[in-house]
User: Fold this.
Amino acid sequence: METSAATGGAYVEIDRSDPRIFSAYVGERSNDAAWSSNVLSLVGHVRPAAGPPRAVWLQADRKVLGRTETFEARPHLEAHGDEPVGFAFASTLLATGTHPEIEVMVEAGDGSTFRFATISTNRRLVADGLVQPDLQPLLMTTTGRSGSTWLTRVLAAHPALTCYNPFGNDLRLASYWAQTARSLSRPAASMAPIVGGEVNSSPLWWAGSDHDLAADLIKEETVRHELFDDQVSALCQLGVDRTAAFYRAYTDGRGDVTHFVEKARGVHDRLLVQELFKDVRDFVLIRDPRDVFASILAFNAKRGVHEFGARAEDTPLEFFQRWKGNITVIADHLSLFPDTPVVRYEDLVATPHDSVEGLLRSLHLDAGDDLVDKLVEAGDGDSRASAHRTTPTREASVRRWEQHLTVDVVQAASAELRDELDLFGYED
Assistant:
C-alpha cells in the first residue's frame, strides 16, 4: 500500500499489489493548491491491467461525487506511450461530512470496475461560516407508513417545535436547498459562466459540462475563491434564510420555537442538511418492514392508487423487490450515525407516553409529564387520522404481516432483509 500527500492535505492510498492495476497515480493538480474545503481537485493516471480506462470517478458512501471519461496521453510515462491514461478533474465535497473517505474508482477496458485508490481528508462544513437562524432542523429519518404522520403531529404540538401540515405532502425544504447548493457547487456548474458555452445553447447551460471542466480547469486564484468558496457560501446562506423564513411563518408568533420538523431519507439528507445548519438534530423512526409493506399495500388498495413506487402491473413480490431498498437506507443511516436516537413504532403503540418522553429527552427537549400527555393527546385529536389508517386500531397494525402478506413476500423479506430485521430487533 502506497500513501502520498494530495490536494489540500488529503492523503491518497493506492494498493500497488492489486493485480488489476498495471500502474496508477493520484495527486494534486500541478501548480494548484487546494481549491477549498468544498472542492477536491485531482490529477493522475491509471492503467488497469485489462486495458486503458474508460472512466474514473469519485464516490463516498456509494454516492458518486464526480466523474470523467476524458483521458489524455502521458508521454513522460514510457510504459504507456500514447495510451490515454491521464485524467484531471475536480469534484464537489458537499455532503461528504468532515472526515470523508473517498474512493477513486475506474472502469477498465474490459468493462470491469474497481477501486484503485482511497483519499482521506478533513474539511470544514459550509455551515461553520454561515449566519445561523434561530430555527434549526429536527430530521426524522424513516419510510412511509411507519407512523411518521402520527409522530409528526405529536411533535408539532411541542412548544419548541414547528412543522408543515403533517397530513399534507412531506415537505423537505432544508434538503431541497442543500441539494440545490450541492448541485450548483459542482465545479462544472460553478464555472459554467466561464467555460459553459453560449447561454442559449441549452436550457440547462448553467449546470455546466464535466467534459469542458476536465479539458480546461480554471487556475486563477480569484476565480476559484469567488466561485468555489464565496458563491457556494452565498447559495447555502440563501437556503438557510429561506428555509427558516418559511417555518417561521408556521410558528404562530411563538418565540420559543427552536426547531422545525422534516422527514429525511437517510444518510444523504443528513449530510446535506448539516452543510447548511449547525444544530441539526435527528432521530430514526422504525417499524417492522413487513408491517410497513403490508400497510402500503392496504393504503394503495383503500385509495385506489399506486403510491410508494408501486406499479399497476406489479405482483406484491415484484413491488417488494423494488421497495426493500427503502429499508436498507435506514440501516445505512444507523451504521454511519450509530448514536442516532431510535424510536420504534411498536413502542409508540404500546406505551405512547413513555416512548414520546424518551424521544424528547434524547433530543434534549422539554419532556415534562403534563406536556407529554398533551402531545400524545394532540397526536390522536385530528379527525384526518382515521382516513390515514388502514386498520381499525393501531394495536391491530402490529404484526399485521402475518395475516396480510403472501407467503412469497414473507419469505423474501425474511431472507433479503435478514440483516435489517436483526439490526432493528424484529423476529420471525
